[in-house]
Amino acid sequence: MDATFKVGGAKISTRRGISREEFGDLRAGREASLMAQPHTPTGQRFVDRREFSDDRVLITSWLSPNSTRMYLTELYALLPESQVLVVVEGESSAKLHDKTLQYFSSLAQSLRDRVPAEIPSVPGFCIDSVLVARSALNQEEVSATIRVPGRPGLMLSYTAYVTGKPDVDLLQRVSGVPPGYEGAVAAMKTLRRGERHIGPIRGQELLVRGDSDGTRSYEFLWESQGQRASIEHPFLSLRMSTTDESGPDGETMEAPFVDDKEALEVWDGILGSLRLRPRAI
Description:
Residues 118-278 form the Tle cognate immunity protein 4 C-terminal domain. This is Tle cognate immunity protein 4 C-terminal domain-containing protein. This protein is α+β, with helices and mostly antiparallel strands. It contains four helices and 15 strands. It has helices at residues 20-36, 97-109, 170-173, 260-271, and strands at 2-7, 10-16, 46-53, 56-62, 70-79, 84-93, 111-113, 125-127, 130-132, 141-147, 155-161, 188-195, 204-212, 215-224, 235-241. The strands form two sheets. Strands 3-4-5-6-2-1-10-11-15-14-13-12 form a twelve-stranded antiparallel β-sheet, sandwiched between helices. It has a three-stranded antiparallel β-sheet with strand order 7-9-8. A hairpin with a 4-residue loop joins strand 5 (70-79) and strand 6. The protein is elongated and about 60 Å long.
């Protein structure tokens, strides 16, 4: 699985198995690299380092060799008990550097250890083996691409984020096929199209099968537009596709399902497992 997480508009990632010594080496190496990179007019990209604690350090640099208005801000945090390194990387205005420092100081204090399968009992944003223990409205986002073992050519794509303005519902925005496939209407058959709610999550689905030269393919899409500025009800999207991967000779791969019934059963099982995390706020 490939996943990307964002909090407050900044990308956040984790690495396991990092000791205190390695943590220090990583920080020092990053600073040395930035000091060695030229910048006009200050001479080097490195700007400053702030230590919120022994295990929480913020490194600020110019966003690019010629930038004089924007900073790159990188928070390095170590959770020593689990030996997990957390890196938060974002862009900020040089004029608002003091506010950026305040935000990252607060963010650094909110990082907690989390067992990957744990459902925390306090509000926050789950990121792999880390919990960002905050309940205030934030720009939280997660996107993941998943390959399914035993199902060659099958790909799942999942996206969730706090939305500032919910979009028009899926079925009002698109025609009878998922976005990007309008040119293949003649070779596609709609299997299901309509409202599809998962518990309290209101959503819509559009499921189609494609047939080309005797080869079947599927494009299934479900969306929930969420509610404005709501951590509890974010925008959610789940897509199941068999068209994003080609065979060894570049040909379209046969869908890894016996028939439509099996494809729908797999989809229903995966979609039905979506849940809003309890105590998210």
